[in-house]
Amino acid sequence: MFEKGQRVRASLILFFLFTFLFTLTLRLAYLQIVRSPELEEKARSQWRRTIKIEPQRGIIYDRRMRKLAISLPLYSLYARPKEIENKEEIAEKLSLILEKDPPQILEKLNKEKNFAWLARKMPRDLAERIREPGISNGVGLTEEPKRLYPKGDLACHLLGFAGIDDQGLEGIELSYNRYIKGTPGWLLSTRDARGRNVLSGEYRLYPPSGGYDIILTMDESIQYIAEKELERIYEEQEAKSATIIVMDPKTGEILALANRPSYDLDRFGDYPPDMRRNRAITDLFEPGSALKFVTAAAALAENVVEYEDRFYCEKGSFRVLDHVVHDVKKYEWLTFPEVIEKSSNIGTIKLAQELGPLKLYEYLRSFGFGSLTGIDLPGEVSGVLRKPSKWSGLSMAAVPIGQEISVTAIQLATAASAVANGGVLMGPWVVRAIVSQDGRVIKEFGPLPIRRVISQETASRLTDILKGVVVKGTGTNARVPGYEVAGKTGTAQKMDPKTGRYSQDKAVASFLGWVPADDPRILILVVVDEPKGLTLEGRMVHYGGLIAAPVFREVAQRTLCYLNVPPEKCPRGEVIRVEISNLEPEVIERKELEREEGMPELKGKSMREVLRILNDYDLRPNFIGSGWAVGQNPFPGAPLEEVRGCTVWFASQ
Amino acid sequence: MKKVSFHLGLFLVTLALLSIGIIMVYSASAILSLEKYNDPYFFLKRQLAWAFLGLSGMLAASRINYRALPRLLKPLLFLTLLLLILVLFPQFGKEIAGARRWLKVGDFTLQPSELAKLVLILYMADALSRKKEKIRSFAYGFLPPLLILGAIFILILLQPDLGTGLIILVVILSMLFVSGVRLAHLFSLFLVAIPSIWLLINKVGYRKRRILVFLDPWSDPQGAGFQIIQSLLALGSGGILGRGLGEGTQKLFYLPAPHTDFIFAILGEELGLVGGMAVIILFGAFIYFGARIARRAPDLFGSLLALGITTWIGLQAMINIGVVTGFLPTKGLPLPFISFGGSSLIFSLIGVGILLSISLRREG
Q1: How many residue pairs bridge chain A and chain B with CB atoms within 8 Å of each other?
Q2: How confident is the model at residue A586 (pLDDT cuts 50, 70, 90)?
Q3: Cβ-contact A296, A402 below 8 angstroms
Q4: Which of B22, B23, B47 has its CA nearest to residue B346?
């Protein structure tokens, strides 16, 4: 019982209490509504443990689905140093498993960081030992795929490589990285304040999605053939470098692309960047005589010359201003085709004079010189082709014969492809398709016609002249038995940077050609930089016809055989050693075709069918891959005598 | 006098708070007690036992006529002072985090300051109601209770337990205020109290840090600000609807004392603003019912006693929530009926029992 005054005072106390209580509700609402997002985020960063799961990079296949780059799941060991209490003990235990010094591990554990790698990408058996009890606190394993290149240095410059963090760093691995890489996954889990996983808490796995697979235009077998020959000439000639490109001139597809020196993709770190450079697209050289086909093409297209036109070749010595142009041999009168066949500098310069600098420049541009080919590889350079307005008085005695102009190997091969392809310049490309791991086609690429450079007729007339180069000109070493070859040799003296004059003993020897000449399946460019040379008639020479043309011949011969291109005429009794792949070298004896049927055609058949057919022929089967037959050795129509077995390549789709 | 039953509303509110407390103690302590005692029910079992004891005490107290209580005052005051002195000695007092607030009794601990609150309220109500006429004189009305109050207050500060000391101070002052003490006397008391509180805060390092950290918890997130930051993170994570009972993560050793002083943070995290508001509204109802009992008590003693108990429990709840929400500097005070802790629970429930006893004998 209160008296009146007390009642008022009690009410005041009550009022005070309720005011306080109301204030608290406001405070609570402020925290739980207004500041909730910010506070929740802060709390989450405390208790949520996020582990990134690296995706597996896609596989890189050659055009017949042979694996060139794969990813294997490996394990990486990390530490959360702040969560480890018994650091010394853990370092001791890990040192036994990892075979590292305990202080080395302890140093990493002592870092004032939340995260430190202890060992990257170790095999499963090692990883399983770490799961042993007692070293799990603050130490964890995560799956990290490792990139492997099962073919070693094969096509190293084309493929490129991915670094330790699975990031594409060179080649296809770089230019198609965003397709190959995939998206990382996340493992979200709950940790308590002492860093332990709380099983009852949030646990969500967002699995990584693997990258897309890449199917190249490149054919591993052709690549192998090309590299084998390139390697041989590179070693033999002690060259500074060498490059080979094999293209399908009708589509612009790169069938093989290789450089020397090369490197082992699995140990890319052990090689200097100089060896890892894809010289075919990054390095410039003066093409020399190899470029004369462009001068000839322009002259033919512009009708400034007829087959029968004769050029006086000044007996091998022609004065232009204060400069003297020489020919290898002292020619007097040569017909237009002879100028090209014999690769007369003087004849070609006179031919170009008929054309004039503007037209010459126009055709050079049109053939793609001085601009990027747009090949889907990283690091391409556009070369140097100056405008006629910047040409000197001597330029018309240099540019037509491939001097004062710098090109890349890919530019030269692409330009020549235009002639082989009936006058249409095709952009070179290396990736046929991008497919997902479940087989969906993500992107498909096709031939990319850039422009018509010369008419079909001009192309075929030029091809006829270039056939002559191989038949009776400077390129006779490029002859392939059974096939007609069109080609052009190149021997470019290198400019000595010290004297500013062309050197006598440093040259770039090259050969470019295609076969069969009138319906080409392959175009090959061989470039040998600074070969030591060959002795000819008592002189050291660096002729492309002597050094590069034989490489062309060897590669062309084997590739045509591999591609089952029927010979126009079959040489008899000749033994050709064919190596189809580095895994399965085989010797085929090619004898007279005595039986019409010969080796059966297996392409497109299932394994079961192939097995039955081979059984009928009493041949021992040797299968590579799975799916449908895509290649065979011996090739269809090959004679059956002395053939004991048959190797068949299969690919899915 | 009509036959009346005790105040059902207050009883139900108390039961509701007690139930919420038991559930939250389990949720907040399960992982902690599994870790510490290898038994997730360690704290739950004890809380249930004390709730049972407390409820028995409450029902017993509600049966006793509150008018008989002053007869127990002398022995109770003596016991309180004795225990408060004993607790200061290392032989009897258990030191936790630099404070001796708990008496060792076998396996259990007793917090004498919890008893002191109840006894002091009882004493003040008795003293103030008997000296009804003299209350306006300083020497007879104001001074003697003040001496008792001072002695207990100082003993509690020696533990040290400033939180409980302040609760006692405010409750007693409000009883003095309501009973009709001259405002001038109260004001003079403030003049003495404020500088001494200021000294108490400034002299003791951790209190000063608590104040500074209260002003800006993020100034020292790993040190003094840690607990309050973790508490705010818990409340913020809860949002409006909460993360669900048992789903909180702040109790995973992030928030210290999740089942005792900071249980309201865990409640806010798991049950959200909705759960927090429910608790606040229940305490509001408690204060309202308590105030009604005070007004309807048949005598001044009953009124003052009811007012004192209501103010004590209401104020302690509000200070606790104020601390947890970062609205007040950190004090080591449990949330009545909800926080884990035997002494607090038992004496609070006995306090409710006394309120119920007063409600039984209301006038009209």
Answers
A1: 146
A2: very low
A3: no
A4: B47
Give residue limits of the domains in chain B: 3-360
- Mean pLDDT value across residues B282-290: 96
Cβ-proximal residues to A164 (8 Å cutoff; 6+ apart), any chain: A120, A121
Whether the pLDDT of residue B24 is over 90: the answer is yes
Instruction: Name the strand (E) or helix (H) holding A248.
Output: strand A241-248
Q: Considering only alpha carbons, which residue of chain A is nearest residue B172?
A: A13
Amino acid (one-letter) located at B155: L
**Partners of residue A36 in chain B, C-beta under 8 Å:** 236-240
pLDDT at A268 exceeding the cut of 80: yes
The CA distance from A361 to A295, in Å, is 10
Single-letter amino acid code for the residue at B270 = E
Q: How far is it, in rounded angstroms, from Cα A430 to Cα A253?
A: 6
Average pLDDT of every residue of chain A: 87
Are the Cβ atoms of B321 and A28 closer than 8 angstroms?
Answer: yes
Q: How far is A38 from chain B (nearest CA, A)?
A: 8
Percent of chain B with pLDDT over 70: 91
Tell me A219's DSSP state: -
- Write down how long chain B is: 364
Distance CA B353, CA B6 (A): 10
Active site residue A503: no
Contact flag B327-A24 (C-beta cutoff 8 Å): yes
A387-424 pLDDT tens trace: 999 999 899 999 999 999 999 999 999 999 999 999 99
Judged by CB atoms within 8 Å, which residues 7-26 of A form the interface with B? 7, 9-10, 12-14, 17-18, 20-21, 23-25
More confident residue, B156 or A91: B156
How many CB atoms sit inside 10 A of residue A443's CB? 13
Confidence category of residue B204, pLDDT binned at 50, 70, 90: low
Higher pLDDT, A147 or B279: B279
Q: Give the CATH architecture of domain A590-651.
A: 2-Layer Sandwich (3.30)
Q: Tokens 């109840």, residue?
A: B118
Structure tokens at B356: 């119920």
Q: What is the mean pLDDT of residues A204-222?
A: 91
Check B233 against A46: CB less than 8 A apart: yes
Fold of A220-268+277-582: Beta-lactamase (3.40.710)
ipTM, interface predicted TM-score of the complex: 0.91
Architecture of the structural domain at A49-215: Alpha-Beta Complex (3.90)
Q: What residue has token string 């040797």? A: A622
Neighbouring C-beta atoms of residue A431, cutoff 10 Å: 22
Task: Quote the tokens at residue A55.
Answer: 């995706």
pLDDT of the residue at B139:
65
Split at pLDDT 50, 70, 90, the class of A551 is: very high
What does each C-alpha distance from B308 to A398, A489, B125, B128, B140 come to in angstroms?
A: 112, 112, 8, 12, 21
- CB pair distance less than 8 Å for A47 and B327: no
